[in-house]
TrEMBL record:
This is N5-carboxyaminoimidazole ribonucleotide mutase. Gene3D superfamilies: 3.40.50.1970. GO terms for molecular function: 5-(carboxyamino)imidazole ribonucleotide mutase activity. The gene is purE. The keyword 4Fe-4S does not apply. NCBIfam families: purE (TIGR01162). Substrate binds at S11, D14, R41.
Length: 159
C-alpha cells in the first residue's frame, strides 16, 4: 500500500528538523515517504512531485524548507492535497524568513503553516495524522492514546 503522507524538504540539511515529523508518524503507525525536492535547485523534480502526488496515492503533504522557502507554496499551487508547511530554522534569520515565506500565501492557495523548527515538524506529523484519522478510526484511537499519555507524563510538581 502507498504511504499516505509525503514528507518533502528543500535540502538534506533540512532532514534533522523534518525527521521530527517522521518520528511522530512512526509513533502513530502512519507510513510516509521522505524525499528531497528543492524549489530552487530541482524545480523540475518539484513540478513532477506536485503533479504526481495525488496519483501516487498521497493524502497529505508535509513540506519543510528554510530561507526563501518557496517549496510548500509551490507544491500547494500544483495539487489540491492538503499541504502542511514547516519553516526550517535558517542560520541568518533564525527561521523568521522561512516562516514569512511559507505563511503569507495569497487567498486561494492555502498552506497550513506550523511553528519554526522541530516543534513545527513534530506538529506537522501530528496534524497529518489527525487529518488521516478523520477517516481512520484505529488511527484516531492511537492519537487519543498519544494525547492521554502526554497528559499523564506531566508531573504536578517540579523536581
Ligand atoms: C532551502 O535552503 C532549504 O530548504 C534549506 O533550508 C536551505 C539551505 O539549504 P542548503 O544550502 O543547506 O542545501 O532551500
Amino acid at each position: 500500500m502507498t504511504a499516505p503522507v509525503a514528507i518533502v524538504m528543500g535540502s538534506q540539511s533540512d532532514w534533522p528538523t523534518m525527521i521530527k515529523a517522521a518520528e511522530m508518524l512512526d509513533k502513530l503507525g502512519v507510513a510516509y515517504d521522505a524525499r528531497i525536492v528543492s524549489a530552487h535547485r530541482t524545480p523540475e523534480r518539484l513540478v513532477d512531485f506536485a503533479h504526481g502526488a495525488d496519483g501516487e496515492g498521497f493524502k497529505v503533504i508535509v513540506a519543510g524548507a528554510g530561507g526563501a522557502a518557496h517549496l510548500p507554496g509551490m507544491i500547494a499551487a500544483m495539487t489540491h492535497l492538503p499541504v502542511l508547511g514547516v519553516p526550517v530554522q535558517s542560520k541568518a534569520l533564525s527561521g523568521q524568513d522561512s516562516l514569512l515565506s511559507i505563511v503569507q500565501m495569497p487567498a486561494g492557495i492555502p498552506v497550513g503553516t506550523l511553528a519554526i523548527g522541530e516543534a513545527g515538524a513534530a506538529n506537522a506529523g501530528l496534524l497529518a495524522a489527525a487529518i488521516l484519522a478523520t477517516s481512520d478510526e484505529a488511527l484516531a484511537g492511537r492519537l487519543k492514546d498519544f494525547r492521554a499519555a502526554q497528559t499523564a507524563s506531566v508531573a504536578e510538581k517540579p523536581v
